Amino acid sequence: MLSHTSVLVITLLLGLMGLTFRLYYFMKPGVQIKKIPVSVNYHLTRQCNYSCGFCFHTAKTSYVESLPNAKKAMALLKAAGMKKINFAGGEPFMNAELLGQLVKYCKGTLKLESVSLVTNGSKVPQKWIAKYGEYLDIMAISCDSFDEATNTKIGRGTGTHLKTVMNLSQKCKEYGIMLKINTVVNRYNFHQDMNAAIEGIQPFRWKCFQVLIVPEENGSEHTLRDARRFLINDDEWRLFCDKHRHQECFVPENNDVMASSYLLLDEYLRFLNKGVGKPTKSILEIGVAAALKDVYWDEDGFEMRGGRYEWSKSDCLGVSPKPDLDW
Predict the structure, then answer these.
(1) Annotation says 106 is catalytic
(2) 264-298 residue pLDDT tens
(3) pTM of the entire structure?
(4) How would you class 83 by CB atoms within 10 Å of its CB: exposed for 0-12, middle for 13-18, buried for 19 or more?
(5) Residue 241 is among the residues annotated as catalytic for this protein
(6) Which of 106, 149, 224, 227 could pair with 58 as two cysteines, CB 3.0-4.6 Å apart?
(7) Measured between alpha carbons, how far is 208 from 118 in angstroms, rounded to an integer?
């Protein structure tokens, strides 16, 4: 089994090769490269029970797509080349049964390589994990600090978030789900040393994001969130990274890397052009290929940030599917 560092180096080399390939062919007149939505983030709801001050996908609507339409969209994306789906919000467990049915459909029926979700953890019942955990490769839990007072100041819960994180981390191990931790590095936590806590939890991946301003979501006093007070400068970002980069699971993403390297599908099944334009039309209305023509997606940035990795628990954990599942 390759070490995390070796996998990261190989991933970066593959990203550079992909960039070289694209540059060569785009220089040829009349040549166009078809976009393939390898990895998609479906924000199935904007509703959330937390109030994180830097949230970049705020509760501007309460709309949630029907299960049949959401399944149809997932099938269209699979046909277009999607290998990994990540369910996010808001808080996706605001619609726990819908989420579970989609997780099961994407893994059990569509047989995607990877099915993951991002949650604050506060609304995840054990019965949900028992029912749907076998279909889930990765559970990413948002945790911005291992000091509870800092979490409360940020808006990440009201004083019991760390207990939730620890309990859910243990459940992931019990049910064979790959554990990921997501941390937003910001004004209130950039100076903190999280090494001991991360070594205790032992996630397979620790994604650390530099807090990001999306003008239409969190960029001013006129938006639902105003993240300007959370901003850090590049030196403060580097301070945090230097303190933690020796952790093999550490995956840092600054603003330049994050900006447009994610394919984001919103609650209306539209691809989002965060900060650079309007959403596309719904993929149910115009299809995936047509929608991708109208979205700015930095594919090379996706490769360079290590967007492809060992994302299936059957590969990483050696977890075999149940014999009655035709995977």
Answers:
(1) no
(2) 999 999 999 866 779 999 999 999 999 999 998 87
(3) 0.85
(4) middle
(5) no
(6) 224
(7) 14
Q: Could you give the CA distance from residue 47 to residue 245 in angstroms, rounded to a whole number?
A: 33
Helix axes 96-104, 67-79, angle to 10 degrees: 30
Which one-letter DSSP state was computed for residue 33?
P
Q: Any catalytic annotation for residue 48?
A: yes
* Six token digits for residue 114: 């990877």
Residue 320: per-residue pLDDT: 45
CA-to-CA dists, residue 61 to 9, 42, 92, 212, 222, angstroms: 41, 15, 14, 21, 16
HSE, side-chain direction, 13 A CA sphere, residue 261: 18
Edge-to-edge strand ranges of the sheet holding 250-253? 250-253, 205-210, 178-185, 138-142, 114-119, 84-88, 39-43, 264-265
Apex CA 185: angle with CA 308 and CA 200, to 5°? Answer: 75
Question: How far apart, in whole angstroms, are the C-alpha atoms of residue 137 and residue 84?
Answer: 10
Gyration radius from the chain CA atoms:
19
293 and 81 Cβ atoms separated by less than 8 Å:
no
